[in-house]
Structure formats: C-alpha cells, structure tokens
Amino acid sequence: MATHNNHLNGDAISNRHVSKKPKLAPTAAVAVITEDDLHSEFSHHDPAVARINNGSFGCCPASVIAAQRRWQLLNLRQPDHFYFNELKKGILHSRTIIKDLVNAEHVDEISIVDNATTAAAVVLQQTAWAFHEGRFQKGVDAVVMLHYAYGSVKKSVEAYVSRAGGDVIQVPLPFPLTSPNEIITEFRCALERAKSGGKTVRLAVIDHVTSMPSVVIPVKELVRICREESVDKVFVDAAHGIGCTSVDMQEIGADFYTSNLHKWFFCPPSIAFLYSRKNSSSCDLHHPVVSHEYGNGLAVESAWIGNRDYSAQLVVPDVLEFVNRFEGGIQGIKRRNHEKVVEMGQMLAAAWGTHLGSPPEMCASMAMVGLPACLGIRCDLDVARLRTHLRDEFGVEVPIYFRAPAAAISAGDVVTGYARISYQVYNKVEDYYKFRDAVDQLVNSGFTCAQLST
Amino acid sequence: MDSPTTNNHNHIHTHHLNGASTISQPSKKPKLLSSSFITPAEIHEEFSHHDPSVARINNGSFGCCPASVIAAQHRSQLHYLRQPDNFYFNELKKGILQSRTIIKDLVNAKHVDEISIVDNATTAAAIVLQHTAWSFHEGTFQKGDVVLMLHYAYGAVKKSMEAYVTRAGGHVIEVPLPFPVASNEEIVREFRKALERGKSEGKRIRLAVIDHVTSMPCVVIPVKELVQICREEGVEKVFIDAAHSIGCVDVDMEEIGADFYTSNLHKWFFCPPSIAFLYTRKIPKGGSELHHPVVSHEYGNGLAVESAWIGTRDYSAQLVVPAALEFVNRFQGGIEGIKKRNHDAVVEMGEMLAQSWGTHLGSPPDMCGSMIMVGLPTSLGIACDDDALGLRVHLREQFGVEVPIYYRPPRDGEVGCVTGYARISHQVYNKVDDYHKFRDAVNQLVNNVSKSFKVVL
C-alpha cells in the first residue's frame, strides 16, 4: 500500500514507502468510495453539462488536483532544492508505478512524456533519422498505419516519414464493424500490398483504440501478424489505453507503446508514458526537446526538458490511491465503465431506432451510437455544428463522427452520423437520458443539419 | 527598492473568472493616474510562499511567480477542468492570441505572426536547430557548412547543436570568450576571429547562435553589434538565445535585428513555469518553415498555430501573461522600472560582497542585467566543477543561501587567481539581508578554512 505523505511544506519525499505492485482492490484499511465522496471529487465539473465525452480530455478528481497544487507550491517555494532533491525521485516513483501497471519488465522501458502526440513525435523522429542516415531506403522502406489513425499522428507521419522520403501505406478499415476479423483481414491485405509493391515495412503504427470512429483494435493479433510478416517494429498508439482497455506489455508484445494517463487514469493534464522494449535500437530514441541530459536514455532525457511544470507527472501515486478506493481498483472501474457504456449505447440505439457501430466486445469505455438518419448529417462540417448545437442548446457534450455513405444512397435512409459516448465514474444515467431526449426533440421538430448552416 | 504609498490597481484588464473571458488590451505602459504603487507589505504577501529560511539570490535559474499570478493560473486550470471541450473550442485560442499580442508589444515585433509561444528557450532552440538539421538533410545546406555558437552557450543548447547540427553533418565552431571580461570589445574581437575561422574553411556560415545574457558565467553580450557583424560577414541567419532577457535586459526586435529570438517569461517576467516566446522575423519570400517538433493536426499552419496546440496539455502558464503584465504595472515604471532597480541593486550588492571578501566583479556593471558574477575568496580553494557544486550544496544546507557558483579554471601562467564566482540575482522580493547572509556565510567559511566545505563533502 503506498503510504506516502502528501508533499506538505517540503517534507522529505524519501520517507515514502513505494509499493511495488499496485493494489487491485481497497483493503480493509481503505473503505470503498461513497457516492457522496465521488460527487465531491468531481464537483468542479459544470453541473449544467451532460459530460459524456471523457474520451477527449479525460477528467481529474479534486483530491488529485489538490496533490498537484502541493507539488506546484513545493517547487515555487524553493525551486533549486526541488530540482536538485525532489524532481528526479518523484518522476522515478511515477515511472515505477506505471511499469507495474502495464507489466513492463524494466523501469528503464518507461519514459514519461506530455501526451501520446509527443510520444508519436519521439518514435517517428527516430524513423526520420534512419532515412537520413541511410539505414532505411527512400522509395523502398515504408510505414504502415491505420486509416483511422488520429489526425495528429497522420500529420506526424507526414512531417517525419514522408518528408524524409519514406512511403506511407494506410490500412482502410470498415465502419460500422461486426467483428475484429474485418480489421485483421484488411491489415493482412495492406501488408501484402506492401510486399508485392517491393516495399519493406519498417514500422507499423497501430491504434489500440481508434479515436474517431472509436473501436478497439485487436492489437495482439496484429502484432503477431507483423512478426510473421517481418515488419521491423510495431508502435501501438494507445492514447486511450490505460484505464480503458487491457494494457499488458508482455501480452501485446509491441516494440513501442504509448498511452495517456489523463484520459482514463485520472491524472491532470497532461501525462503519458512511452514504453520502449529494451533492445539495441531503443538507445536511439530521443526526446525532440534536447537538454543537457541528451544521450542518457529517453527516460532520463524526458524527465528534464528544460524548466517547466512537471507536477502532472508527479501525482501518479496519488492517482493510484484514488483508483484503489474503488471496488476492484482500476480493473473494476474499467469493467463497470464498459458495462455501463454498452448499456447506455444500446438504450440510445433502441430509443432512436439505430444501431451500435461495433459489437460490445469491440468497445471499451466508449461506444459509437448511430444517430437518426433524418437529422440529415451530410459532411464533417455538419457534425461539428451539430456538436456545437448540442452543447449550446441542450447542455450535452458529445463528439459526433460523420460516416460517408458507401454508395450514392439518399442520405435520409442511411445512418451517416455516430455519437461517441463515453462512460466514466462521474457519469449518471441521467446524462444519457438528456442526450436521448435532445435528439428525440430534434427529430420531432423536423430538424436537419442544413438548418445549422448560417 | 520601491517607495509606494497607497494600494492601487491601475489596470483595465479583467480576470478570467468563471469563463467570463475578455480580450481587453491591457495597457503596455503603467498608469500614472495616481502616485500609489505596490507596497512593500504587498510585495511580501505576493511572495509569502517562498521559503523564508532561504536567502534566495538565484532568481536567474528558476525565476519566481507572485501569488496573484498563481491564483490567475489556478482559475485558468479550473476553468479548463470544469468543461474542457468548451475550453478547447471557445477559450484556448483566444487566450493564446492575447498572450502573444502582449508579448509582441513588449518586444517591439512588427507582427503577431512573428511571435510563437513555447515551453521554454530549450524548446525554442530545438525548433530552430531541427530546422537546421532538415536543411542539411534536404541539401539546402552542404555537409561541413558552419554553425557558430559561444563557448559559454547554455548546456542544453550545446547538446541540441550536437543532436541536430553535428549529427546532420554541420560543422560547429565555438567562440571562446574571456572571463572575467572588461569590455564588449573583448567579445567582439573573439567573435570576429571565429567568423574568420569559419569562412576560411571555405564553407558558408549558415547560422550564428548567440546568447543575449550567458548563463554561466553570466555576462550581457553586445548582441546588436554582433548581429550587425553577422550581416556584414554574410552569416545567413542569427538566432539569439535570450533565456534571461525579458525583464532582465532591453529586448527590442527591431533594434537587435536577429532572425530568431527566444526568451523565457518565467525567469524575469513573473510567469509561472513555464512559458517562453520564439520570435521569427517575417521573410518577404517563403523559405522553409520552422515547425514545432511535437506535430499535431495544426501542422503546416505556421509555427505560432502549431505551438498553440501540441496535444492535450495544461496551457495555463501561457494564458496568464495578462495577469503577469498587471502585476508588473503595479510597480513604478512597470517592467522598465523593475529592470532598472534590479540592475542598480545587484550591482550595489555585488560591489558590497566583492569589497567584503577582497575580490572583484566578473564584468563591469554595464555588462550585467539583473545578475552579476562576484569573485569568491581564493582561500576557499575551489579547484573544479565539483567543488563549485559542493560549495553550492553546502551553502544551501548549512547556511540557507541559494546561489549558483561558477568554477573558472586558471589560464596559463595565472597564479593565485580567483577560481570561483557566485552568480547573484536581484528580483523584487530580495532584501539587503539576503546578501548580508551570503556575505557572512562566506566570511565564516573563510575563517574556518581548517574545516573547509570540501572536507564536509
């Protein structure tokens, strides 16, 4: 049990006992969190909003915000002392907890960075150098990524791979989906395409949970296929991983793996980890912001990238404490979030006469729910405006995905919009009723997205 | 120090309470409507979170942040946590633009497009040098082309040169600088010699990286003159690393004339950790663009826009520039007044210490901003970098004095010279007692030479 004291008034952090394995359930000494406590922990959320979008920005409970403030004040009180005596220990403590959470073999394999976007830049910059320095061949070597890769990752691939002369192969994915096999088939096809085009796939970038549309990708299988097909390295972009899906470095077997901790692991913005499997090429990963720690390994480089506020990276122990106040700890939270989001998704789909975008087993704590076709969603601009309309007029926060119709069918018949609903511990059934009723009201009033083009 | 009278808040800018955001333009110049400025009691209050047992004479390393700006930052953070989607879509961009606009005015840049906000000068260096690396990769620069930097460039910048320039095939030339230094001419002379060396090898000098105020040892570099020399000698681009400048020395983009210029705002401009700006002079015809190394969906929309969104993070330190400006304008003369008084005080304290210890200053007063190098008594026997660090730790732990120490190796033929210099800073929260405490600590160490700090190590 992590019995650390909160960092009041510069008390020595070294007095803390660092628990090696995170407890998975509250012990007799720690009662399960009550409804009231839970409400209190998230009382800073805007009560007027049905906040069913934990997937975008995550959340942070009041007790962790308080812990972060203490760290910030500790630094401001005497920053030289903080830099020389507290910071490195604190970062190492966080890395150690993460290592245990994700079943990495060695704490050296865990670096802490700002977010998955930064982690992608770290990995892809290494790829760019490989092209510059002749280890990879322009016009021959390629990077494979999913079509539904996150926008920033696609740009990062353009900025570092395409620009350096590498080829990029995208794996088209169907949506809606009925089984993981559809994904596996497309992935194999893409690798085949690469091979028959005379390309060597140096890196596969695979989402663990895609962002929009959101589905859980069968990463373990895809990594295995990569090994079979001699793909050099696999980088799993699991922005949504920790606290959302099962995250086990030995199970998944990737070379690089990143996940945010501020999305589903209750950390304040922002903190992510980048796992890099110990082997020869992992020495060549560098943080793009170079400090005097350059060359001391990514984890050490990332722990000091100039003077900044590292407090979000230091509260991982406090977050673990918070999570362990729930029945079953993070596993329990994950399981219940999953069950609830599926239940709510099915409730909404039934109410609107639509369907889910993927089967429940391909959802984690998020689900894609079809919106009534009569809303007339015709393009990306429509979904952006509809989202704003729901926020401004109905107090519902939920991202919407535009899914272009496969063929030239009239928009009135086909579901072209999917809402990505999330479920996190602060959510209540009322949040989803509010959404249901808002959409019903729009439908009943004959609303179409065309009306929003003002 | 200041001698204000009554409490007065001469600002027109409102705080961002509960989402009531304003884009009012805070005044650049402090109001002179009444003669009341921040009082000593209020200054004390603003910095009451500082450890009172420490003589904190090292503002240069980590800066400081007054309580009212911390409070503004907390409000911004809570505003975000309350409804992050709304914040992202409706507040963030406006807030960043407001900060950039204030900075543009503060540094006399022509266009707000020229001002990007990044975490710190270390990040700005990575941006400029990564661009240099791409120029080598893409054949715009030839292998062996030269990048110049000062020998006293900051450690992180030297490593960045290694990581991006040397690794990409560039040739790095260091300009040796004398220390102690007696005049700007000494620096100009060495700089010219280094330029000659660079050109004599038949290669182009693609970039000169020049500190505005070096870190250790700390001296103010005559950047305007060096930029002029660079233009005369055909140096393609000049990047000024002014980690210490805004709030410490004069910062005028038109005056200085560099292509790239960066300064931290959390060192001498009262912002919380961390925020810096990177100025990039607008060029008439397009060259290849600078990019933030952390690539987001904003890639290609210009550095300022790229830097304003590098993934989900806490941008609050970048959003409280209006609050920092408000704070600064509570002082007589605003930031100019603060700068001048800091300079006068640090020179006075430096001279007091040098006289007490029988040593000297590392540079003349006109080569100092708000920091000054003070020679330490030779009897302390500082003989290497470890000794300097050891002394610093000893001063912190045994005497409650926080001050960085620089080891200055003796040159050939030098005997019995001063080998250790303390870099003292002066900021608005400092008091004369802080420097007396340091003076007395060193005198005590000198008097107890038999129990030197080195034995303690």
Automatic annotation (TrEMBL), chain A:
Output the superkingdom of the source species.
Answer: Eukaryota
Keyword Ribonucleoprotein in the entry? The reply is no
Q: Where is this region: Disordered?
A: 1-21
Pfam families reported for this sequence: Aminotran_5
Source organism lineage? Answer: Eukaryota, Viridiplantae, Streptophyta, Embryophyta, Tracheophyta
What is the name of the protein in this document?
A: Putative L-cysteine desulfhydrase
Residues covered by the Aminotransferase class V domain = 85-279
- Alphabetic keyword roster: Pyridoxal phosphate
Q: Which InterPro entries match?
A: Aminotrans_V_dom (IPR000192), PyrdxlP-dep_Trfase (IPR015424), PyrdxlP-dep_Trfase_major (IPR015421)
The species this protein belongs to is Arachis hypogaea (Peanut)
Record's PANTHER family? HERCYNYLCYSTEINE SULFOXIDE LYASE, L-CYSTEINE DESULFHYDRASE
UniProtKB/TrEMBL annotation, chain B:
UniProt keyword terms in alphabetical order:
Pyridoxal phosphate
**Residue segments, region Disordered:** 1-31
Give the top-rank taxon of the lineage listed in the UniProt record for this protein. Eukaryota
Magnesium found in the keyword field? no
**Signal peptide range:** none
- Residue ranges of domain Aminotransferase class V in the record: 91-362
Q: Carries keyword Hydrolase? A: no
This protein's name:
Aminotransferase class V domain-containing protein
